[in-house]
Amino acid sequence: MAAPKKGRGSTGAQGRPGRALALILIAMVALTGGMFLSKQTTPRLGIDLAGGTSITLKAKPQPGKQDAVNETNMNTAVGIIERRVNGLGVSEAEVQRQGREHIIVNIPKGTDEKQARQQVGTTAQLFFRPVLTIAAGSPQAPQPSPSASSGTPKAADKDKGSDEEATSTATPTSTPTTQGRAVTDALKDDATPTPKSSDSKQPDAAKAPTPNPSESAAASKLEKQFTALDCTKKESRAEVGVGTKDTDTVVACGKSPAGQWQKYILGPAEVNGTDVDDAKGVLDPQRSMWIVQMDFTDKGAKKFADITGKLAAQQSPQNQFAIVLDGEVVSDPSVSQALTGGSAEISGSFNQQTAEDLGNILSYGALPLSFQEDSVTTVTAALGGEQLKAGLIAGAIGLALVVIYLVAYYRGLAFIAIVSLLVSAILTYTIMALLGKGIGFALNLPAVCGAIVAIGITADSFIVYFERIRDEIREGRTLRPAVERAWPRARRTILVSDFVSFLAAAVLFIVTVGKVQGFAFTLGLTTLLDVVVVFLFTKPVMTLMARTKFFSSGHPWSGLDPKRLGVQPPLRRTRRISAPVDPKEA
């Protein structure tokens, strides 16, 4: 039985280099095609390159509640802040968690920095307000006001109301159909002045209520605002609730269960978010439906019982209360009875996600967290363009130096290295462009630095492999066996080196906050791509090139010339003839 020859690796990838090349070619075509199909042909630029404002917030727990900084509370806070940023009417804003206790808010250029800082840095405002009227979210044509003598109300504005209902936890729920009331009726009911006491000597006609001019003017202003409000526009929604107090009658926007925008007139806040002790979305196994359970504080339970008792005696939609977060109605359940006992549930057309989201929003009213600004960075578009230009110039200089070194030292082998760098660049560019569309990855200046560092890491892998091949040739082997014998040792070295780089990038990504994560992410991505390129492109191409006459013959410009590598011709053993030994002398 013949012993296996040493120094030979597996013949799968070595004997079929075309398969590996076809695989990486398919990957490149797929990524490039996906980039053009998604119409995202360039990577998204971060705030420091495109211009804008970057705000870093740090969570602070209230005294005695150190465990409040947890994943659930932080995710809820991210959702609230994201709603606020979207309310500013900006596009491509980013709100994301960084580490355990930080939130990064990146707002592109064209946004008022002062307004943005006020929006994201203040505590969320959560109120329970009674619904006075509901109408479709688009503007309505103004209608003539009724005469004071007739007192005839306007035609009712019909619209679909809430299909959610608030009940006590012991009472089954139903899904009522609600209908909007007239705007004038709602304002008239809410703003009716209280009759003043009169002197007994005055005639009965003098006892009639005296209109309050200021209240009438306020009601007229609110009616005009409600009529003109267009909740389908982000800019209009951003202006709703600005400068209002919890004791004011306000207009607000919200979405119906069908996903259509609606507008509301809401009475003064009866319950605050701080009156909610806990809220969560749960699955009711008996009814096989998702509901939201609320528990109130002692003070909040009394206020909630009072307001639900009043609402239960009203007709739709004035038997509904709106849960208003930062001026937007997130839910408007109806009430059929006074809810006492300090707990209630909201049921309706919930799924798991919507029930849990509403539970988180309600819990945020009592969220034991506050945020302080760690840093605020403002970059103009011009400065961002200059930084991007400087980064690209630095990358071009670094790439040129690497190419010059490869050509001067490795000559023909430099061609393989340069083409491998080009393949790595194509993969990196297309993946970054797709990640911008897919997960919102933005290329910032530290990320550009990471890409520049990756040029050296990738070139180092080629150098390790080339030097192993040269070592094999110095030992007297021809090129084809040298390529295959050098690969196992070079492969181990490349994998160990890339693993260390990737581990460093992963640790840096986890423990850092802000823009440094861009550097770590890019470094980790390019390190993984280095392994892909070396295994699926550089090694197969080197195998094919070893079969060409230019490289296999050791051409002086191939980079594998035996003379330049100091190869000595192998020593040949010679037989020495000696005279026979005389037996006598022995």
Keywords for this entry:
elongated, Multidrug efflux transporter AcrB transmembrane fold, 3 domains, Alpha-Beta Plaits, 586 residues, disordered N terminus, five-stranded mixed sheet, alpha+beta
Written description of the protein model:
Helix content is 46%, strand content 16%. The longest helix is centred in the last third of the chain and has 33 residues, at 479-511. The chain has three domains: 18-42 and 380-552, Up-down Bundle (Multidrug efflux transporter AcrB transmembrane fold), CATH 1.20.1640; 52-119 and 373-377, Alpha-Beta Plaits (2-Layer Sandwich), CATH 3.30.70.3400; 125-144 and 155-192 and 213-353, no CATH class. The radius of gyration is 37 Å and the shape is elongated. It has 586 residues and is an alpha+beta fold. Residues 1-13, 142-161, 168-184, 186-208 and 570-574 have low confidence and may be disordered. The protein has 16 helices and 15 strands. It has a five-stranded mixed beta barrel, surrounded by four helices. The chain has helices at 11-15, 17-37, 47-50, 71-87, 113-121, 183-191, 213-228, 234-239, 298-312, 352-364, 381-410, 413-438, 445-474, 479-511, 516-545, 549-552; strands at 52-61, 94-98, 102-108, 126-136, 165-167, 250-255, 261-266, 271-272, 276-284, 289-296, 321-325, 328-331, 334-335, 343-347, 369-379.
